[in-house]
Amino acid sequence: MERINVPPVGPMDLPLSLLELGCSGRFELITHPVPGQPLPPQSTLPHGLPPTSLTLETEVEKQFLRDPAWLPIHDTDFLFQKFPKVTQRKVDVDSLLSCSPSALQSGLSVVRDPTTGMLLDFTEVLLENTGLSAKNSLSLQRQPGPPSESLRGSNTNYPFLPGGMEELTLEQITKKSELEEEIDFENDLLKVPPGLKAGMDFTSKEAKIAKAEVNLMSLLSELEDSTDLQREEEEKEKEQKKEKASNLPRTNSLEDLGIKDAAPSVSTSKGIDQPKPAESPQEQKKKWAVPVDISSPCEDFYKRIPNPAFKWPFELDVFQKQAILRLEAHDSVFVAAHTSAGKTVVAEYAIALSQKHMTRTIYTSPIKALSNQKFRDFKTTFKDVGLLTGDVQLSPESSCLIMTTEILRSMLYNGSEVIRDLEWVIFDEVHYINDAERGVVWEEVLIMLPDHVSIILLSATVPNALEFSEWIGRIKKRHIYVISTMKRPVPLEHHLYTGNSTKTQKEMFLLLDATGNFLTKGYYAAVDAKKERTSKHAQTFGTKNTSQNTTASQDRSVWLALLHFLSQRQQTPVVAFTFSRARCDDNARSLESMDLTTSIEKAEIHSFFQKSLSRLRGGDRQLPQILLMRDLLKRGVAVHHSGILPILKEVIEMLFSRGLVKVLFATETFAMGVNMPARTVVFDSIRKHDGTGFRNLLPGEYIQMAGRAGRRGLDATGTVIILCKAGVHEMSDLHAMMMGKPTLLQSQFRLTYTMILNLLRVEALRVTDMMKRSFSESHRNAQEHEKRISQLKQTLSSLPPLDTDGQLSDLLPYYHTVTELRVTNESLQKAIVESVNGLKALSVGRVLVVNNKQHLNALGVILQVSSDAVNRTFTTLIICEKGNEDGKGEAGAAHPHLFNTALFIPEGPCSHTVQKLKLQDISAITVKTLKVIPDRIIDNYNKRQQPRFRHEPPGQAISTATQELLRLAEANPGGVATLDPVNDLQLKSVDVVEGCMRLRMLQDSLKGFTCVHSPTFSEQFARVQGRMSVQEELDRLLFLVSDQSLTLLPEYHQRIKVLQSLQYIDGGGAVQLKGRVACQISSHELLLTELLFENVLSPLAPEESAALLSCLVFTQNTQVEPHLTSSLKESIEQVLSVARRIGELQRQCGIPQTAEEFVGQFKFGLTEVVYCWARGMPFAEIALLTDIQEGTVVRCIQRLDEVLKEVRQAARIVGDSVLGSKMEKASLAIRRDIVFTASLYTH
Q1: N- or C-end of the chain: fewer Cβ atoms within 10 A?
Q2: CA 539 to chain CA mean position, Å
Q3: Residue-wise DSSP of 111-157
């Protein structure tokens, strides 16, 4: 580049110069040159301006003397003398008072011209709810928290208000509770705030305070008083009016109310039941679950949804269309459909809708493997999909998030910001709510979801879908549309297989055809085929005991025969369900002679296998399990259970879905979520071990597994085969299993400490609210009860007042005594009838004293006793007045017979009636019996009930019996001797003896009452009775609505006691530091928190602490004794002693679990394995240290990583940064190689 010559500066040129500063490319413009001097040079020193430096002295002082980190720790006295002299700190008191600026209380709003839209003016608008934040409010109006907490939330946040739990209304807030009636602002002030030791001193001070012009409080209280006075006046007037109203037609109104009829046999009086019919039937029972009819085709689907959010290449089924119509209306749905019916369509449409609406969807599944699979499926369909599981977090900002239910629960408790944008939550495999361990999580999530979120529940067919949806609808106060499919898209045929050699390999018998008929013919054919083979042997040697267990070689021959047969008929792929992991492996290994794949398939399998495992480290590729599986896979055989390495499981699933695995030996977990249908399903046996013992498969389990047979669009029917290896299963067992109803959805709700602490953190949410809303309490229909309660209260207030003066002063005690007498009497009678001797006494011919609406202390004789044990009736001939045979006479309103034992003697001629008596009508069993001819009496009586024989004289048998009874009554007008339950009937149980004594005492006390002699007694007694029956029903309902009737309430109080004694919460229920730590931890929260606070983990090295914590995630038993370092052994002792202490404390507080059971949950079988793994030992060597299978080890270490994360969070809360970083190190040490290989589905 040639040089440019700039002409010298002339008089017209501006005095400008550029100065280049150093080599950094910065220039400075110099505009005011010194006059007379030439302009400065175009550049400075070659490397910028010379550096300046602090003097060494200042630097040393700054670094070593003024920096508090350098101060000596031990010699503090010396330090405090020296330090202030050196530093000369400026005192800045204000720095201690940091106050975040308060939120703006107002904003600007624009006023526009309505026609032109021109800006006219700005006005100031007051903003509401500016002080709300995630720390003090449940409202969606609150400010968003910091971005770092937006996904998972924070454990100091409040959750958003759960749907269906209303915030308090204005009326409820203004209504004073009993506690805050009248506060005297001078004398009654509380001095000590809760939680503090000392408080304020309000004694009179010397200084005179200038009196304020207006005292607001006094003004307010005056206002309150005046309104209160007005109210009182109004109420008084109302009362007076009521009294006037009731004074006038008093007697008539009582007749109309029908209280007179309130006889002992009817518990509520007619009057109270009358207001009911006024309501419309719809109002009475508001149904939340709405079954959707899918029998008729959905004609106008495309008219109603002209441009759907998502289109499929196939025509939808009716149930899918109905579900989509409901989703478009933003309703919640419960889809209970058979396996492979296409429930995913509903989920896909919801995701598409939320992408269209720019909202978010959360898809939760019970199993991590299922989450990974769904992630891959949805990722290919929708692109914008994220995954959150315990150890993986992929694109969490996506509109569709797939996660496990536990993570959604912690997001809800921690007030995650994701919940704001949430439109749908899709729960897949909801029947998992039956899981004893984790079912409670589903219920918690369903209860905690806010109002704006709609719910989609997908489940296998369950019998009580409606009841379950009704519960969700009621707690969420919204309709749930229930859609269930009638039949499977691909019908199943169930067979029995008895073959065990090449000769007999075709012995397959159809047992249940595609239309659902159970064919006994097939069953007997199978039995015969099996018998024919065993009989020759049995004839020669006598029968051997046919045990259920078969030897390995027998098994092998059965499998070889069956698989030959199936591959000839092209019935592969086959899933063989085997209920033990060892059995799966053995069966697969025994098939080394089988080869089910072509050479092209072998090549495909090989390349896929190599490609998938290419991300493993060299040593890990040579693991025995991987080598074994490679050989099996090449021949088209595979194994799938929890002991298989996760990456191998995924390889097998992918090969299976491509149709390259021909035979898959799997355990039940394969049927749980993995959506991989086959052509044939084989059951190795129909018994499984469920953790306690062996049992037959339940219908639900059988259907879930058998449902894997039959691929939609590929097979006309699916084949299910049950192997009969030892003998043919019992027909009754098979029938129950195939034709039985699947398991009901049942609540597994239980209280966990995490749940209690999470809800106690938030004042507005109460644990009892959560318990009330659980599915286990779904029978509590609180709204119905509330309605009835208000009705009863009205009824009560409208009843006329009681007259309890003079003679009637002891009317109420009399009523209570009489009621107690009645109850005691009834319970005694029940005891008599349930006893053998009592029934003997109550036989034909026994004379009774009868009391009911029609008869008062009348004698009767038993003619017939019904055989029905529940509502036993006694057909009895009773004497009565002539003309009162049908009981038209006045019913005795009070219970006169309770104190009056005088027998009924007719005034005029004596007549009779035959009635069926209930137990409560019989007030005494006498010692007398009569000889009667029951059949004749009954026939004669029935004949004379017909109109044309009405006036015939009674037959001989009846007249004799009636005369006998009348004679008895006249002979003993004061009462006949009765059978005593204790002495005569020999009933010696405590209840009966006590009851008898109580009865005598009560009967004696009745004589002392004066109210009986009052002329208006019966009328007043009827009133008391009417009033009391309403009151009793009201009390019953109030109890049902109250928290006291919750089944889990006692356990809740026990758990609170445990938390208080461990100081997780204080006496007032406020969550303390320990409680805050425990909130962070999802399982075994008490033990982990105690270990943290007792510093058990601090002395250990990172790998030792990881090894120690493995006891929280490992659940199996192991036979291998681990070799441990001495410090680990000590720590294990510490852990066990802490666990024992917690267990014993729980026991003392009344929780039924014993200390041994509590300690027994923690198993230390994997401590050595984890210790070696964290120290870097390769996986192949670790697998040799234990008898636990590789897949289980991997799963445990993965879950251990989640525990370490939780402990790290907890350490951060406590402020123990050393422990936090140690957990970080431990976490890094175990996160390596094959254990943390990313899932094939997520890449």
Answers
A1: N
A2: 59
A3: EE-TTT--EEEEEEEEPSSTT--TTT---TTSPP--GGGTTT--TTS
| Residue 107 counted as domain residue | no
Contact 687, 465 (CB under 8 A): no
Residue 334 resides in a domain:
yes
- Same domain, residue pair 462 and 500: no
Nearest to 435 by CA among 411, 413, 404: 404
Q: Check whether residue 499 and residue 435 sit in a common domain.
A: no
736 lies in some domain: no
What is the C-alpha separation between 198 and 207, in angstroms, rounded?
23
Q: Note the pLDDT of residue 387.
A: 92
Residues 997 and 1117 both lie in one domain: no
CA 513 to CA 718: how far, in whole Å?
Answer: 11
Q: Is 198 left (phi over 0), alpha (psi -120 to 50) or beta?
A: beta
Q: CA–CA separation, 479 vs 476, rounded Å?
A: 8
**538 has a pLDDT exceeding 60:** no
Of 888 and 70, more confident: 70
Can the peptide bond before residue 573 be classed as cis, meaning omega within 30 degrees of 0?
yes
How does DSSP classify residue 62?
Answer: I
Select from 697, 729, 761 the last residue of a domain: 729
CA distance 366 to 371: 8
Contact 711, 606 (CB under 8 A): no
Mean pLDDT along residues 214-232: 54
CA distance 1 to 861: 138
Tell how far CA 808 is from the center of its chain: 54
pLDDT at 424: 93
Task: Compute the C-alpha angle 1191/1192/1196, nearest 5°.
Answer: 120
Pair 405, 294 in one domain: yes
* Main-chain dihedrals φ then ψ at residue 575, nearest 5 degrees: -105, 125
CATH of the domain at 440: 3.40.50.300
Determine the straight-line distance between the first and last CA of the chain, rounded to whole angstroms.
Answer: 54
Asked if 1009 and 1086 sit in the same domain, the reply is: no
Q: Are 461 and 585 in a shared domain? A: no
Q: Which residue has the higher pLDDT, 940 or 900?
A: 940
Say if residue 74 is exposed, middle or buried (CB neighbours under 10 Å; 0-12, 13-18, 19+). Answer: exposed
The CATH number of the domain holding residue 1189 is 1.10.3380.30
Please tell me the predicted confidence (pLDDT) of residue 1017: 76
**Number of Cβ atoms within 10 Å of the Cβ of 683:** 23
Query: In this predicted model, what pLDDT tens digit does every residue of 373-399 receive, in sequence order?
Result: 889 889 988 889 999 987 788 888 899
Phi/psi at 503 (5° precision): -70, -40
Residue matched to tokens 């990974």 = 372
Would you state the structure tokens that stand for residue 652, as one six-digit string?
A: 């097998």
Regarding whether 906 and 1004 lie in a shared domain, the answer is yes
Residue 500 and residue 427 in one domain: no
State residue 934 phi and psi, 5-degree precision: -55, -45
Distance (Å, whole) CA 118 – CA 120: 6
Distance between CA atoms of 122 and 970, rounded to whole angstroms?
103
pLDDT at residue 569 in the model: 82
| Helix/strand/coil (H/E/C) assignment for every residue in 723-770 | ECCCCCCCHHHHHHHHHCCCCCCCCCCCCCHHHHHHHHCCCCCCHHHH
The predicted structure's pLDDT at residue 425:
94
Do the beta carbons of residue 596 and residue 663 sit within 8 Å? Answer: yes
Q: How many Å is the maximal CA-CA distance in the chain?
A: 160
- Tens-place pLDDT, residues 821-850: 878 877 887 777 777 777 777 788 888 888
Residue 377 inside a domain? The answer is yes
Question: Can you tell me the distance from the alpha carbon of 159 to that of 762, in angstroms, rounded to the nearest whole number?
Answer: 8
Strand partners of residue 575: 664, 681
485, 520, 536: which is the final residue of a domain? Answer: 485
- Residue 922, classed as helix, strand or coil, is strand
How far is the C-alpha of 374 from the C-alpha of 206, rounded, in Å?
76
Structural domain total, the chain = 4
Give per-residue pLDDT as tens, 164-175. 776 555 565 565
Q: Mean of the pLDDT values across residues 991-1005?
A: 82
